[in-house]
Amino acid sequence: MMRAVEQGYLVRMIEARATVIGVDVPGGVQRVEAVLASDPLVREYM
Amino acid sequence: MKTVGIIPARMAASRFPGKPLAVLAGRPMVEHVYRRVERCPHLAEVHLATCDQEIYDAVRAFGGRAIMTANTHVRCTDRVAEAARSVEADIVVNIQGDEPLIHPNAITQLCEAILADPDVPCVNLCNIITDEADFRNPNQIKAVCDQAWNALYMSRQPIPTMKQWGRTRVLRQLGMVAFRKDFLETFGQLSPTPLEQAESIDMLRAIEHGYRLRMVVSPYESFGVDTPEDLRVAEGRLASDELAAELFGLVKK
To answer: Is this complex scored with an ipTM above 0.90?
Structure first.
């Protein structure tokens, strides 16, 4: 996003209310798996 | 368009009490700054703004103009804003009193930049950091800007990323800022902002309130005096400075 900022465009930030977990390393998958187990949205599509 | 320079100064600097009147090559440091920036042809007048009678008297003693201001200002820009109210001007250049090697051409650059673009409310001088110790030094303020040279942020931390040192241009903000006088008045009335207070950097107030702050790169070296040791270094540099020689006959033959 620095490309937009440096070209003078406005990048508006909003604070996320939900928990966001990014998977960056293989170990991250396990962490997400545990959270997904109790995530109601998962049951809607799986 | 009338342009004036205002140098804010106070005795109570936390790291170096009495700094503005510290003697450098036989003259108070503020006199060096005053005499040097007076050489900028854009400045109709130079004033020193202070809350200390001692500084006021010293400036009058060397024939300079001085304005007394309140002793309640936390930021030097607020002191300059107060002083500017009693001066007739269209553009006001805030000039730090602790840069005794300031070159008048650097002030000219600022004046030309603000005169060239009526949409820009203020222009701040910077130069390029080439020493990694300066990049890491919290006394040196780093700035990052967009492709049009508008400042995005300033920090006492090393920005942008440390990982690219040597491959990325790093800018040092200098304490020289040209303001349209009406914007300086506005600035003085804006509430101090969280990042301004966290970093202790005046100009973040303008950025955080959404004003455009244009940066201009000076090819001149800068040397800010923060400590008594710095004063000795500045003295060494002045000994070979051509402008100092012209003004005060300081160069050793």
So the answer is: no
